[in-house]
Design a protein that fits this description.
61% of the residues lie in helices and 2% in strands. With 326 residues, it is mainly alpha-helical.
Length: 326
């Protein structure tokens, strides 16, 4: 593979500061080729982006006074990135558990936020006990099996359940044609004062933007999963290509690093969507805006409306609680 751009050869893998490797997984990035202090330097540093998104989301929750469960979810999201940072630095089994199990625990938090909404206290307590029990079972059984496929399948199933449940709630509680009662009562299935037909257009616009947000988040997340799969399947070929390309260009073929960047972005989209959905379910569409100035070059945030939120700003309509992505 001829390259015309300036590059320099990959150093050979060597023994590192954290040797020996005790993890049950060792990814496609070669060990300790860049520094003896980090086993997989690209896989390590891409988690900085992951953690920065978690920090951004946590600060937004605190500043805008979103429900506390979402701030806790962003803390869990940060721990996933921190655990992954330590795992890829050391390739030690305890750090692998911190990385992988924190993914399970954070998904349990989002499951609680999704399934506990507007449920009686007895249901919420039972749900909490059930999710804690599930997390304990997965932790103990995974430690017993030490089979990464078990963790991957458990995480995939839990994530799919939570996402599809959120989609169902969004459609049945927010879409005007589906939330009407037997006599056309628009207030069925939602909190807050009764709605009139004047809010239909607003909520339809919110739903369109929510589905755009869901589509973007899922596309990026699943794209990361796809790259992760190819990285695992074609590792020898990718290693050969990276060495032919040389540094720094070979870094672009570090598929697991792309997995961190893309799944981190997808997870940020999902939690932010959850925040906005919760406000809408509480009938607070007129109190919060989705700020998403550019579809491709910015990340969405949920912010409280200013005093002139109903006015048009820079060509973006404030009506309906959304600022359209450009």
């Amino acid at each position: 593979m001829a390259m015309t751009l300036p590059s320099y050869p990959y150093p050979s893998p060597r023994r590192g500061y954290w040797d020996p490797v005790t993890s049950t997984l060792n990814w496609c990035e070669e060990d300790y080729y860049a520094t003896k202090y980090s086993a997989e330097i690209v896989n390590t540093l891409t988690n900085v982006f992951f953690m920065s998104l978690a920090f951004k989301g946590f600060l937004n929750c605190r500043k805008q006074q979103h429900d506390g469960i979402f701030a806790v979810a962003f803390v869990g999201y940060f721990l996933v990135g921190a655990g992954s940072f330590m795992f890829h630095t050391t390739l030690k089994y305890p750090m692998q558990l911190v990385d992988e199990l924190s993914m399970i625990y954070t998904t349990c938090l989002m499951a609680y936020a999704t399934f506990s909404y507007r449920k009686p206290s007895t249901f919420r307590v039972g749900l909490a006990v059930g999710l804690v029990s599930l997390a304990v079972f997965i932790t103990l059984y995974y430690h017993y099996l030490q089979d990464p496929a078990f963790h991957q399948n458990a995480y995939a199933v839990m994530t799919a359940v939570v996402i599809f449940r959120s989609m169902y709630v969004m459609e049945t509680r927010l879409r005007p044609s589906r939330r009407r009662g037997p006599r056309g009562d628009l207030s069925v299935g939602r909190a807050g004062p009764p709605l009139g037909h004047g809010q239909d257009a607003r909520d339809e616009q919110i739903l369109r933007t929510m589905w755009l947000m869901v589509g973007c988040g899922l596309s990026v997340f699943l794209g990361g999963v796809g790259i992760w799969t190819l990285d695992n399947k074609y590792c020898p070929t990718l290693r050969r290509w990276r060495r032919q390309m040389g540094l720094p260009w070979g870094i672009l073929l570090e598929g697991h690093g792309w997995w961190h960047l893309m799944t981190g972005t997808g997870a940020y989209f999902y939690i932010t969507w959850g925040i906005w959905l919760r406000h809408c379910l509480n009938g607070r569409q007129e109190e919060f805006d989705l700020e998403w100035p550019s579809l491709l070059c910015s990340l969405p945030e949920i912010v409280r409306k200013g005093p002139a939120a109903g006015e048009t700003v820079d060509g973006l309509a404030g009506d309906g609680g959304t600022k359209k992505a450009r």
